[in-house]
Design goal:
mainly beta; five-stranded mixed beta sheet; Methanol Dehydrogenase, Chain A; 2 domains; globular
Length: about 575
């Protein structure tokens, strides 16, 4: 870490901002945004309502912070008491959330694995951050000083890390990446104060353990089941809900006969011990690389006339699921994409009704959804005001190709892959799903990338202003009426969007923020008692400019006023 005199001065003179209790983390976000999804529920819903359907058209840029050496930001920033914490691979930036001014910067030594990073967690006076080579690092929230650093996975054995950690009452929870390259996935817990290891849950059972029989003798240490996305947490039940990755090899299932537990599942874990309470497997014996690494969203709501503790997930396999999160019982499963050809539906016991002949073949089999999935890791959101679940859906199909060549330790994909026929283009669609019925209430078809290939990974945000914010594959951040889907506002970022929007408040003003490409953008309502006055040209010493220079200066001045707004 670069520990500088400036960092030391900041540590000494800055106010004592940023001490966050675990109870604060459990509250729906308002001025502060205290985790990857805003809180531990995964709803990505903010109670801020200054920006509403009636005034969102006045939303304008406030500042842009460029991350040097970044290639593609995937982080959702965290905001604590007016300070924003933004991550790139192996580094953390502390910014003034009102102006974008840099306060401090933590830079870890360069790693051979430069996986993307999706953010920090916060508890007490510290931030928690994972490096691309799977170290969990605790930083002082005020200065960026390293308080402790533990390695929780071996990068030489194909492990890496990219997720934002999750905090519980006194623990920090992390997962691992690399599931398609010959690893066994797990969820790890560490004491937030000391960094001491608390427990580990393996997503693939060891030989002789319950569930091992679902692998048909396939080596468990190269079976997959990575845990590379942040889970959610119920503080009342003290239960974690973590989604798991696909089995390996990805597309050739003959060498791993059976359901391949606990891949493509959500597991409910006791937060104190890591013991499994229940699991639900979305795609048994997955041969299409449809991991379940979509955020499990926790909602307390009425279902069929009774109050229930619910877990909702729009799964990569094309079905929207609603589970009772106390026992994992499936309450509802409905398609949320139109291009779905691998299953007729989901049976009452939760197993998909698979259509024969849809497994990959050496010649290739056209199946929908595509390998990217009906959705992917980018965040959904849920509004308790509208009772709608907002998800970026993908309508696409792929040609799935298999190979009998075994994967081998550390070898990705097992000699198999996918191809997309040029005649079969893909499209992003923002869909609003009614929580209780699973029906699509409205949708907004969105622009897709060149030739219809999906390249961006934009998520969603719901707010109490009856708005849903989202990105598309063409680089636009947009807002729609959360009740009707009417498009109300958009802004072209000029870059590929591979992150999800968030919102926060500073000084009585609500901001919308999102990473796009190599920059983090912040927006707020046009804020002035009267329109800004452009200086008269004589105030700018026009004699100093030739006519061409004067015209150029006027254009620059106009752009400056368009951008500053105050």
């Amino acid at each position: 870490m670069k520990w500088t005199v400036t960092s030391l001065m900041l540590f000494l003179i800055l106010p004592l901002y940023g001490s966050v209790s675990w109870l604060e983390v459990t509250k729906a976000p308002a001025e502060n945004w205290l985790g990857y999804s805003g809180d531990d529920s995964g709803q990505r819903f903010s109670t801020l309502s200054q920006i509403q359907t009636e005034n969102v058209g006045r939303l304008v840029p406030q500042w842009v912070f460029h991350v040097p050496d970044a290639t593609r930001l995937e982080a959702t920033p965290v905001v604590v008491d007016g300070v924003m914490y933004l991550t790139n691979s192996n580094e953390v930036f502390a910014l003034d959330a009102k102006t974008g001014r840099s306060l401090w910067h933590y830079q870890r030594a360069k790693s051979s694995t430069n996986a993307p990073n999706r953010g920090v967690a916060v508890l007490g006076d510290r931030l928690f951050f994972v490096s691309s080579d799977a170290h969990l690092v605790a930083l002082h929230i005020k200065s960026g000083a390293v308080l402790w650093d533990v390695r929780y996975a071996d990068a030489t054995k194909h492990y890496s890390a990219s997720l934002a950690p999750l905090v519980t009452r006194d623990k920090v929870i992390v997962g691992v990446s690399g599931g398609d390259c010959g690893i066994r996935g797990y969820v790890d817990a560490y004491d937030a104060e000391t960094g001491k290891h608390a427990w580990r849950f393996w997503t693939v059972p060891f030989p002789g353990q319950p569930g091992a029989e679902t692998w048909g003798g396939h080596p468990s240490d190269v079976a997959g089941g990575a845990t590379w996305m942040t889970g959610t947490y119920d503080p009342v039940e003290n239960v974690l809900y973590w989604s798991t990755g696909n089995p390996g090899p990805d597309f050739y299932g003959e060498e791993r006969p059976g359901d391949n537990l606990y891949t493509d599942s959500v597991v409910a874990l006791d937060a104190d011990t890591g013991k499994r309470r229940w699991h639900f497997q979305f795609t048994p014996h997955d041969t299409h690389d449809w991991d379940a690494q979509q955020i499990p969203v926790l909602v307390d709501a009425t279902f069929q006339g009774s109050p229930r503790k619910l877990l909702a997930q729009a799964n990569r396999n094309g079905f929207f699921y609603l589970l009772d999160r106390t026992d994992g019982k499936m309450l509802l499963a409905k398609p949320f994409v139109k291009k779905l050809t691998w299953a007729r539906g989901v049976l009452p016991d939760g197993r998909p009704d698979v259509i024969p002949g849809t497994n990959p073949t050496p010649e290739g089999k056209l199946v929908c959804p595509a390998n990217v999935g009906a959705t992917n890791w980018f965040s959904p959101s849920y509004s308790p005001q509208t009772h709608l679940f907002y998800v970026m859906a993908i309508e696409a199909c792929d040609l799935y190709i298999s190979s009998a060549r075994t994967s081998g330790k550390g070898e990705c994909n097992g000699g198999t892959g996918v191809d997309r026929p040029r005649s079969n283009t893909g499209q992003f669609v923002l869909r609003a799903i009614h929580l209780e019925s699973g029906t699509i209430q409205w949708e907004i078809p969105l622009a897709s990338g060149e030739d219809g290939y999906i390249s961006s990974m934009p998520g969603t945000l719901a707010t109490a202003g009856n708005l849903v914010f989202f990105g598309d594959d063409a680089g636009y951040l947009a807002a729609a009426d959360a009740r009707t889907g009417k498009l109300l506002w958009s802004f072209y970022t000029g870059q590929m969007i591979t992150a999800s929007p968030m919102t926060y408040g500073v000084g009585g003003r609500q901001y919308i923020s999102m990473a796009s490409g190599t920059d983090i953008f912040a927006f707020a309502l046009f804020h002035a008692a009267e329109p800004p006055r452009q200086p008269a040209i004589e105030e700018l010493n026009p004699e100093a400019f030739a006519p061409s220079k004067r015209q150029e200066h006027e254009m620059k001045t106009a752009k400056l006023f368009d951008a500053t707004n105050d």
